[in-house]
Amino acid sequence: MADMWTIERDDEGIAWVGLDAPGKSTNTLDRQVLDAFETVISGFEKNPPNGIVLYSKKEAGFIAGADIEMLGELEEEVLRGVLEDGKALLDRFEALPCASVAMIHGHCLGGGLEVALACDRRVARTDAEAGSPEVKLGLIPGLGASYRLPALLGAAEGMKLVLTGKTLDAEAARSAGLFDEVVPERHLRTAARAAIRKGKRGKKAHKSFKEGALDTRPARALTARQMRKKTSEKLREEHYPAPFRMIDAFEEYGVSRDLLEEETDLFVDLAQTKTSRNLRRVFMLREKMKHQAELPPGKLEIGHVHVIGAGEMGAEIAAWAALKGFEVSLTDIDRDVLAKAVQKAHRLFETEDDEIKSRGDLRPPRNRFIADLAGDGVKAADLVIDALPEKLELKSDVFGELEGRMKDTALIATNTSSLRLKDMAGALKKPGRLVGLHFFNPVRKMPLVEVVKAGRTTKRAMTQAAAFAVAIDKTAVACADSPGFIVNRALTPYLLEAARMLEEGYKPELIDAAAERFGMAQGPVEVADHVGLDIALDVARHLKEAFPEQVGEIPQRICDLVEEGHFGVKSGRGFYTYQDGEPEKDDLDDDECDPESLDAMADRLILPLLNACAALIREEVVSDSDEIDAALIFGAGFAPFRGGPITYARERGVKTVVSSLKALQKEHEAARFKPDDGWKSLTA
Amino acid sequence: MLRQPEAMAAVEEVILGCGAPTSEAPNTARVAALRIGLGEDIPAFSVQRNCGSGMQSIDTGYKYIADGRADVILAGGTDALSHAPLELKSETAEWLADLRSAKSPQRLKVAAEFRPRMAEPVVSLIRGLTDDVVDLGMGETAEVLAHEWQITREAADTYALGSHNRLARVQDEGWLEEEVVTLFSPDGKVYDRDDGVRPNTSMDKLASLDAAFEPPHGQVTPGNSSQVTDGAAWLILASEEAAEKLGAEPLGVIEDSEWAALDPKRMGLGPVLASTPVLTRHGLSLDDLDLWEINEAFAAQVLACLAAWQDKAFCKDRLGLDSALGAIKRDKLNIDGGAISLGHPVGASGTRIVLHALNALKRTGGKRAIATECIGGGQGGAMLVSSL
């Protein structure tokens, strides 16, 4: 315990207080850390130094926030106690007679930012980032940020950070007024010392006189209305209550100590909600999967990635990998396709790399990305990614040819959606080097990559491919070489059901509204248009061969649209017609949106999806149900606050799910609703 | 990098010729080496010898290897003349400096000293292509040679037409596919060939152009001059032993090189002065060479070189020979066109003509070639290469 907080007083009498939470790679706040901090503060109260600089001894950053796992384990009243003690502690720290400075590097999030906000000033290293991401876990700040952020930045700016959970990079945090200074490592201590010399900052409830004058109930009512409107554009209150409760509290109390009091009650209430519990579970799941897949420094044997096929997926995968630090060569036999891919890549670099406009060619992603018409990159590659059209013969030919030119140790990853790896492996002398890396469209936005193991895929290939996925900031889920893998297998019945409902005369807007009401990020009709109807149809046909009963008949409507060249967003028309990538949707009348019938529609869509998930477990395509939850949330936009399909099925009750499926089977006289045998193992 | 990963991994030094480095990359070689991912620990330096820069880099690398200082060197040349900056006149720069340092009451006074002419930029490209010592533009030196060697406008235009026709043919045959790398610009355009070639030009069209440098009586036109363009070329140089160890297939061998200098006003004759000593050293006649690459700075200048070798007095007085060296057959000279049709990115041309001489030898089954160039400021460079 003693070495958790180290205190060194320098010749100016400044106390340098470093945090090094034992047994963790990053500092998080838990009871032990706060208890030990209390001892530090008591010491300063008795014997105040000339100044206090708080910093982290961890390489990763300052403090990443509260220990999320701990939050889940605490009883309601214990949690309340921890929060109240923590806030009292920060108040005492703030009240110390000497100036204090938070010296920040890396992440400074949630509770970490709240500790930093209790300091008089914040001096940050250039790599620092700050934010209050609690709403993303269905919570609000718990240690005073809901008061201190608006007090420091002004109500609008401060509340925006709390309500959106947005993380600011160092420069953005400085211009917002959150950081006082941003400097490189070499000036960090000097800047912290200079900030101490500025002395204690006077405490004000408001950023400015004007802010204070406007902080009246009627003025706040107006602001709150704006905030509610903005928030509901992105989130539904019934699914994500946290920001809405926060706005209520702001409207009621304004930027005052009363808000600080209210914060604890709200936090404790929100922590008990299903939404928050599921969001925290999903967060921890993602962290767990990341840690499982990532390799220690130096163990990733992939530096150069050669992507074959510069179509939509190949182009995006290549550009993304270059952006994330890999040497990339991208090839295609069609120079015009390649040229278009180059243009797209540079657009991505420009949106993701702030400095590219001013420094242009000197920025790393541009140097790392090579349009390689001759396909020479295969010789230097550690990983060759196949993004060729879905034709087995073509892929086999290319694989056979390139294996002769590849490094001995190089791996081949295929991005196929509808073909089987075992069929492709036949073209290789070393079939063990073939692995699946199945990305989702658009690559820059979709966090999931399915890492597919064929019968002969080596352990090294699996480990390296998964670690590569993590290295480009994706969540890797391992699965077997089964048709449709995880996401397409589960999503196809859902999309096909939507198409059947369209054929039955349901409005597409209504079908999407039903799914969105359930909590899907996007309704199935729009999703199908985004995936591309041609691709969805191709996947569905392959799946139907393998699982004729569960997939059912393919609705003629999709075949007709594909026949006519209406592929969805990319061709400007699919189920919807698109203007600049946005669907033209009719407004729905209120009387069309009867909650009961919307829920029934959602059931008809979601239950076949759940049924396919049960089959995935039974067939051991994945090793546990967490992987299905993660895959569907990160790869298909399944409602995260519901914790994923299997968690949702369990919460709803497996028996209820099964009986609902049976009811649908009877109603539609269709075998596709027949409950899968996999439910039996889930019931147990 | 991608074509020969093993050889690139063995590179010990990078030498790059550049005629007009940009202000962001004064040591263009180092910036280029880092950008292509060659490694922080590989030293790199740039060389500048105007139009000879890209051959100077090869020559320096060749001598390093010959001296045993290195085994594998990446040598090349580049210029992006479309990016040549506009500069401030020196009086404008002084005025700006005064304005910045002036205290506020003085400021207005200094500001009032601005004169409209100060706003005119200096086009650095034009400055770079002007020889200040003799106060002649490069095109004007070509006019000097045309006059002295009686090169007619028609002869120059005929030569230029040939350059375009020859380049168009090799491009269409696809014989440059190994030599020219297809490039893609960030806005999605494809550059698969040098685009200065005009396969549809004719004597009539060329004859219709006005003199570019000394109107109205001059005869050097945009049509019979090289084109100011962007370009880059690299060669991997290695000792015989290193090439064998790397399992590389060399394009050919560098046999010898030479630099010469002369009156800047007649810089176009540089190839004659630089090549002749090489021929003498190896006991070769003009005709013993299978191919010649004489950089096409100006049609009149190339033709003046040919005339000089045929001129007894010149060969005696200036080259110290007993008699005239003779004629170079047109079917051995610049057989695939040159700077007139594909452009003259100053620093890159030296590397390009050496590379092309080697590739053309391979294609035609020839044994020996000389690549040579005139150099602004009154110099010439020549390199003798042979095929394997």
Describe it for me?
Chain A: It catalyses: a (3S)-3-hydroxyacyl-CoA + NAD(+) = a 3-oxoacyl-CoA + NADH + H(+). Chain A: Keywords: Fatty acid metabolism, Lipid degradation, Lipid metabolism, Lyase, Multifunctional enzyme, NAD, Oxidoreductase. Chain A: In the N-terminal section; belongs to the enoyl-CoA hydratase/isomerase family. In the central section; belongs to the 3-hydroxyacyl-CoA dehydrogenase family. Chain A: Residues 484-578 form the 3-hydroxyacyl-CoA dehydrogenase C-terminal domain. Chain A: One of its GO terms (molecular function) is enoyl-CoA hydratase activity. With 684 residues, chain A is of the alpha/beta class. Chain A has three domains: 5-274, 2-enoyl-CoA Hydratase, Chain A, domain 1 (Alpha-Beta Complex), CATH 3.90.226.10; 299-480, Rossmann fold (3-Layer(aba) Sandwich); 487-621 and 653-683, N-(1-d-carboxylethyl)-l-norvaline Dehydrogenase, domain 2. In chain A, helix 21 (487-503) packs antiparallel against helix 27. Chain A is globular, with a radius of gyration of 27 Å. The model of chain A has no long low-confidence stretch (mean pLDDT 94). The model of chain B has no long low-confidence stretch (mean pLDDT 93). In chain B, the strands form five sheets. Chain B has a four-stranded mixed β-sheet with strand order 2-1-3-10, with helices on both faces. Chain B is of the alpha/beta class. Chain B is built from 15 helices and 14 strands. In chain B, 39% of the residues lie in helices and 18% in strands. Classes of the chains: A alpha/beta (684), B alpha/beta (388).
- Summed over residues and divided by their number, the pLDDT of chain B gives a mean of 93
Instruction: Please describe the biggest sheet of chain A, giving its number of strands, its sense, and whether it closes into a barrel.
Output: 8 strands, mixed
CATH architecture of the largest domain in chain A, by name, is: Alpha-Beta Complex
Low-confidence stretches of chain B: none
Give the H and E element order of chain B.
HEHEHEEHHEHEEHHEEHEHEHEHHHHEE
CATH topology of the largest domain in chain B: Peroxisomal Thiolase, Chain A, domain 1
CATH homologous superfamily title of the largest domain in chain A: 2-enoyl-CoA Hydratase, Chain A, domain 1
The end-to-end span of chain A amounts to 43 Å
The strand line-up of the biggest sheet of chain B is 2-1-3-10
CA-based shape of chain B: globular
Total domains of chain B, how many?
A: 3
Share of helical residues of chain A: 40-55%
* Strand residues, percent of chain B: 15-25%
Count of runs of 4 or more consecutive helical residues of chain B = 15
Number of strands of chain B: 14
EC number (chain A): 4.2.1.17
Enzyme class (chain A): lyase
Family (chain A): In the N-terminal section; belongs to the enoyl-CoA hydratase/isomerase family. In the central section; belongs to the 3-hydroxyacyl-CoA dehydrogenase family.
Organism (chain A): Marinicauda pacifica
